[in-house]
Design a protein that fits this description.
single chain, alpha/beta, Beta Polymerase, domain 2, Rossmann fold, 3 domains, 6-stranded parallel beta sheet, 4-stranded antiparallel beta sheet, elongated
């Protein structure tokens, strides 16, 4: 049995092609059903950055065109430059999935969402009835490998998005975020994501303000926050511990006078301001005020790039862990292929031993104790004779070369054909 993967990703295809071949949750069952008609087993990972079809078949799938044709049939043809689909078989296919689950193949190295998406693919295949032992073991091992990579390396430990970097800086500046108050200035997506990230990491009270009351109310409802009038932002800054500003204003919306007024009402409490607007929302001169910590978008991006570098440095360590799991999976897959042959050889040898022993004992007058000793001796002889050929068949990476030869030498296929013919005759 061979595992193959045919797919596209952000490394091989532009976004127009990727989005065309993205399969929503309700589109997966028909695709899996069609794949199940052609292959022993199948599973599909489909995200904004990749659509990958994993199949189990006797000889592997070297030519991606039949699967690409099926995808095009279900989603419609699309103009594609070159050959954006890739095909991998055997060890390379397993290694690719484990790298995907570990975040090594992600656009943002180490991102965690892909591990959940691998689980979704496994669940969908289970529901569609397209899992085989090989596909099931492949995905189970991939999920475990993804967890291990994240637990034993630093590939996911450093913030690389604006929102996660803001959380990291908040922790470095203020320590424990539990119960802190966050003020969002501006009703844009960047501010919302940052506020949500802070809330997930323990920040408590949320305040929202912007120049547009309607948008302020909408964002406040989304975040379960309190809406604040824009003209009251100085009072809101005084009440906040963290201020995230992301408006589209042409000039500063927070100047030195506003911050000085806010700080005078805060006592000794430090204030963190994160300016993710372009052009900037916050007058950079306020950095000189005691107790004020200001970071702008360039500083956040510098921290994020430093963290990306740290993540990339962890890739080689992650790949070593992944290669260990790939080797274990391939050994298991090999055992799955050789076990029937090993079992047949043992059954044939045992049948011969039992028949010959019965024929011999029928002509003797041995007592029960002697019969047991003779039976034990013949069993030991068979085991010793079969030990080397069976050990060779089980040897990872080599045994599969001998399976067909062993079946021929022991006449296993002839015996199977004879048994089948006998059943037909009956």
């Amino acid at each position: 049995m061979q595992i193959s993967v045919i797919g596209i990703s952000h490394k091989t295809a532009p976004v127009a092609v990727r989005e065309h071949f993205t399969f929503a949750a309700d589109e997966l069952p028909p695709l899996l059903a069609r794949l199940g008609e052609r292959y022993a087993g199948a599973a599909v990972i489909s995200t904004c950055n990749r659509t990958e079809v994993y199949v189990a078949s006797a000889r592997g799938v070297g030519d991606p065109r039949p699967i690409v044709a099926l995808l095009s049939e279900l989603k419609g043809d699309v103009a594609m430059e070159g050959a954006p689909f890739f095909a991998l078989t055997g060890r390379d296919a397993a290694r690719h999935l484990f790298r995907v689950a570990g975040g090594v193949e992600s656009m943002v190295v180490g991102e965690s969402e892909i591990l959940g998406q691998v689980r979704v693919a496994f669940t969908a295949a289970t529901a569609a009835g397209t899992l085989t032992p090989a596909i099931s073991r492949l995905f189970h091992t991939a999920i475990r490998a993804g967890r291990k990579v994240r637990a034993q390396t630093e590939i996911s430990r450093y913030a690389v998005s604006v929102s996660s970097t803001a959380v990291e800086l908040a922790r470095e500046t203020l320590g424990d975020l539990s119960g802190l108050t966050v003020l969002i200035i501006g009703a844009g997506e960047a501010g919302r994501l940052t506020a949500a990230a802070l809330a997930r990491n323990g920040a408590g009270r949320m305040l929202v303000t912007s120049r547009t009351p309607g948008r302020t109310a909408d964002l406040a409802a989304t975040l379960a926050a309190e809406a604040v009038a824009f003209d009251d932002r100085a009072d809101a800054i005084a009440a906040a511990d963290i201020v995230i500003s992301s408006t589209a204003a042409p000039g500063f919306v927070i100047d030195g006078a506003i911050v000085e007024r806010a700080m005078s009402a805060r006592g000794e409490r430090p204030l963190l301001l994160v300016d993710i607007a372009v052009p900037r929302d916050i007058d950079p001169s306020i950095r000189t005020l005691p107790g004020v910590h200001l970071y702008d978008i360039d500083e956040l991006q510098a921290v994020a790039e430093r963290n990306r570098s740290r993540r990339r440095s962890a890739v080689s360590q992650a790949e070593k862990l992944i290669d260990e799991d790939v080797a274990k999976f391939q050994d298991w897959l090999h055992s799955l292929e050789t076990l029937p042959t090993v079992a047949s050889i043992r059954e044939q040898a045992e049948a011969v031993r039992v028949a010959e022993l019965a024929r011999t004992l029928a002509k003797t007058t041995m007592n029960a104790a002697d019969r047991k000793r003779v039976e034990a001796m013949t069993s030991a002889i068979v085991k010793k004779l079969l030990h080397t050929p069976i050990a060779t068949l089980k040897k990872p990476g080599e045994g599969e070369r001998y399976v067909q030869a062993a079946r021929g030498l022991f006449g296993l296929d002839d015996a199977a054909d004879a048994a089948s013919g006998s059943e037909v005759a009956e």
